[in-house]
Design a protein that fits this description.
Elements lengths: L1 E6 L2 H9 L8 E4 L6 E4 L1 H5 L8 H10 L3 E3 L3 H19 L4 E5 L2 E5 L8 H16 L3 E6 L2 H13 L1 H4 L2 E3 L3 H10 L10 H9 L5 H6 L2 H7 L3 H10 L16 E11 L2 H21 L2 E12 L3 H4 L8 E12 L2 H15 L6 E13 L11 H19 L38
Helix pairs in contact: 4-5, 11-12, 13-15
Length: 426
């Protein structure tokens, strides 16, 4: 049996932990640059605030109902996510927990007897909420796909289920699949959905009945077959041990349209340094770097401050895989210079590292004596920045003023990661 533990309206929940007066009040969190709504409390959903819509469109409705608005506070959300996952690992054992995203984790429940599944799920929910303050839902079933289905049921009917749903019998699984539209199943994308509707597949139960060979031909080959088997209760998608990411990206919107090459280079250097930190955290190195910029060319046509313009990108293959920041910044800045066009306005830029390999698999080179010292230096910089925060030590190429930084007009304090912003009890 598997469980999936999913935080409810995670970003909103994190804000409420430190502002309990917002409980049962509508809350929304905005994306980078305060552009779109990316998290809504149930109360915000109930008054009609849409998901992923532009903030300026929803603003009249938000102001009418007194919705509390926050800019994205990723320092806070990342730390709260770590606390939730650490709590879960304490309760279920690290080997049984697979972190799926910032607010979700799968748990293998092979060590729990079937009669005790619901009680254990309830304990997990209670402990996480008590120890971290973050509200969660728990879904339990024989496979990961069915566990996601159970979690959806727990979330949809919070008062009825208590945010815990267990599908431990065939009868419960069949009932759940019959009531679930096929488009709500984990693993069913937009393209597949049209094919399924065309042949009369409307529910999860309908999908479970189709032949595996049809799924192989029409639902992505092996992926489609796995989906059908999982819906039938066959454990196919196993627990993954920690695997390095195949790609690491850092992208941000600019606070205002950027026109100067110097600002573009500073931003690219900053994003490269952040991506390099992530790379070292998973003890890997990258062999390729891609840089992209997004223009603001349609601004005059639409009258909005930022609108979608063309994206320009280019890449470079590195002489050898590396995780040393300066060895990544140099080609990244050169790529930015290649992309830059005078007179254009830019609204976004980003860096992606790929061709990622384990750090210990890189073949040594007798003529590069500085590699070992470079890695040691990076470790020291990472340690200082982690303990002191705010990028105390950074490369000069990333700038000091950073006028291009994204807008955060509704930023809450970083309660758990900054001494000067520590929560105060009066």
């Amino acid at each position: 049996m598997y469980a999936i533990v999913d935080c409810n309206s995670f970003y909103c929940s994190c804000e409420r932990v430190f502002q309990p007066q917002l409980d049962e009040r509508p809350v929304v969190v905005l994306s980078n640059n305060d552009g779109c709504i990316i998290s809504r409390s149930d109360e915000a959903k109930d008054i009609g605030v849409g998901m992923a819509g532009p903030y300026f469109i929803a603003k009249p409705l938000i102001e009418k109902h007194g919705v509390e608005v926050f800019s994205s506070n990723y320092n806070l959300y990342g730390d709260m996510s770590r606390r939730v996952m650490d709590t879960l690992k304490t309760l279920a054992g690290s080997a049984n927990v697979e972190v799926y995203s910032v607010d979700e984790a799968f748990v293998s429940l092979h060590f729990i007897r079937q009669a005790e599944l619901r009680a254990f799920a309830a304990v997990v929910k209670e402990k996480i909420e008590k120890w971290t303050g973050v509200k969660v839902s728990v879904g339990v079933a024989p496979t990961k796909t069915l566990a996601k289905l159970a979690n959806g049921i727990a979330k949809k009917n919070k008062h009825q289920t208590g945010c815990v749903a267990v599908l431990e019998t065939d009868e419960k699984i069949i009932k759940a699949l019959t009531m679930t539209p096929v488009g709500e199943l984990w693993g069913v994308g937009g393209r597949s959905l049209k094919k399924l509707y065309d042949i009369g597949i409307n529910t999860g139960w309908d999908l479970r009945q189709i032949p595996e060979e049809w799924a192989r031909k029409n639902l992505g080959g092996v992926v489609g077959v796995r989906l059908i088997k999982e819906l039938r209760g066959e454990e196919v998608i196993m627990m993954d041990e920690y695997k390095s990411k195949k790609m690491i990206a850092t992208t941000r919107m600019f606070g205002n349209a950027v026109t100067d090459l110097s600002d573009i280079k500073e931003a690219i250097a900053t994003y490269t340094a952040r991506a390099a930190e992530k790379l070292r955290r998973q003890e890997c190195a990258a062999g390729m770097i891609n840089v992209f910029v997004v223009t603001n060319e349609k601004e005059k046509e639409t009258g909005t401050h930022f609108s979608h313009g063309p994206t320009y990108s280019t890449h470079a293959i590195l002489p050898s895989p590396t995780s040393i920041t300066n060895e990544l910044i140099k080609p990244a800045v050169a790529l930015a210079e290649r992309l830059y066009q005078q007179g254009k306005k830019y609204k976004k830029a980003g860096v992606m590292l790929s061709s990622i390999v384990p750090d210990d698999s890189i073949q040594g080179n007798l003529f590069e004596k500085g590699k070992t010292m470079g890695r040691f230096l990076m470790e020291q910089i990472d340690n200082i920045n982690f303990s002191m925060r705010n990028d105390v030590v950074k490369f000069a190429s990333s700038g000091t003023k950073r006028d291009w930084k994204m807008r955060k007009d509704f930023q809450s304090p970083r309660y758990t990661t900054r001494w000067e912003e520590l929560y105060q009890v009066k």
